[in-house]
């Protein structure tokens, strides 16, 4: 199989083909559209297993940093070997670990089985599989913000606040990149204190919802998430969220705010080319 990069003049066709694969392609499609809207596709490679009729898509940065995000689409587990080939091709010049999102658990299981050996496998699940929730435009019901608050958006001056509330260990530089490049909604008090926010992640999903403890019974979380969804929809984006099955509070929150659960899950995987090289020695 020869790895093929999608060219800029083919982006419209790629968009149309990904749209036809909805809802399974939602992560790849929304990420692609977000990068295109923010003029960031020059930093990315869109790699496929064939063109124009592809079964696997990998969107990945050309220049690797400490953390390396890859948003993928794979039609079926039978194409896991093609996905493996593209990931190896994309990581051939680096030993940095890769974070993979956008594929179903059966695809990831096939990847692991394909690479299984008595010594090591380059693929690892990073967290439990996540449920996929989408928010149809007709389900977005705006809420009036309570008195004493105002709606704005996150900026680089809020990096420290967001970093402190982030539930996972990560660098402030990465947080700053997220909130300065992608859509967000922030609620502040009238004197400018940030009390609630949510962002659209680089890979397309909305998340990182946070409400300061003393304001958690004011429905600010619902105001934030509906306002961000309305903002994204007006920009022509699809709204989706990834929720762990054990997070019952988040499940209830999303369903109460109009989100609809999809009949599949996504896996969050890690890939380390060094493990692959050790396996082949």
Question: Count the helices. How many?
Answer: 9
| Main sheet characteristics | 9 strands, mixed
**Radius of gyration using CA atoms only:** 19 Å
The whole-number mean of residue pLDDT values reads 91
**Percentage of residues assigned to helices:** 25-40%
The general outline is globular
Q: What is the first-to-last residue Cα distance?
A: 23 Å
Would you count the extended β strands for me? 13
**Could you give the order of the helices and strands?**
EHHEEEHEHEEEHHEEEHEHEH
How would you classify the helix and strand content by structural class? alpha+beta
Q: Kindly estimate the percentage of residues that lie in beta strands according to DSSP.
A: 25-35%
Protein described:
- The structure is a single chain.
- Helix content is 33%, strand content 26%.
- The strands form two sheets. Strands 1, 2, 3, 4, 5, 6, 7, 12 and 13 form a nine-stranded mixed beta sheet that branches.
- The chain is α+β, with helices and mostly antiparallel strands and 281 residues long.
SSE inventory with pairings:
Elements: E1 4-5, H1 11-20, H2 26-37, E2 44-48, E3 56-61, E4 68-74, H3 80-90, E5 98-103, H4 105-115, E6 123-125, E7 130-134, E8 149-152, H5 159-165, H6 172-181, E9 184-189, E10 194-200, E11 206-211, H7 220-234, E12 240-244, H8 248-256, E13 260-271, H9 273-280
Parallel strand pairs: 4-5
Antiparallel strand pairs: 1-2, 2-3, 3-4, 5-13, 6-13, 7-12, 7-13, 8-9, 9-10, 10-11
């Amino acid at each position: 199989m020869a790895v093929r990069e999608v060219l800029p003049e083919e982006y419209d066709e790629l968009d149309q083909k990904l749209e036809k694969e909805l809802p399974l392609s939602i992560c790849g499609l929304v990420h692609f559209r977000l990068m295109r809207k923010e003029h960031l596709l020059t930093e990315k490679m869109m790699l496929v297993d064939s063109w124009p009729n592809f079964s696997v898509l990998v969107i990945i940065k050309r220049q690797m940093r400490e953390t390396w995000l890859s948003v993928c689409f794979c039609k079926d587990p039978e194409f896991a070997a093609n996905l493996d080939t593209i990931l190896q091709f994309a990581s051939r010049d680096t030993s940095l670990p890769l974070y993979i999102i956008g594929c179903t658990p059966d695809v990831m299981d096939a990847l692991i089985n394909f690479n299984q050996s008595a010594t090591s496998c380059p693929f690892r699940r990073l967290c439990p599989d996540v449920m996929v929730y989408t928010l149809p435009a007709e389900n977005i019901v705006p809420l009036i913000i309570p008195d004493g608050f105002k709606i704005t958006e996150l900026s680089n001056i809020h990096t420290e606040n967001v970093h402190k509330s982030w539930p996972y260990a990560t660098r402030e530089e990465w947080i700053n990149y997220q909130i300065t490049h992608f859509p967000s909604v922030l609620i502040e008090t009238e004197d400018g204190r940030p009390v609630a926010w949510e962002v659209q992640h680089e890979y397309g999903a909305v998340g990182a919802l946070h409400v300061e403890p003393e304001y958690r019974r004011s429905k600010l979380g619902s105001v934030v998430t509906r306002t961000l969804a309305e903002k994204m929809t007006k920009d022509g984006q699809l709204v989706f969220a990834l929720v762990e099955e054990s997070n019952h509070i988040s499940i209830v929150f999303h369903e109460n705010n109009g989100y609809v659960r999809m009949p599949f899950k996504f896996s969050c995987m890690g890939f380390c080319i060094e493990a692959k090289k050790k396996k082949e020695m």
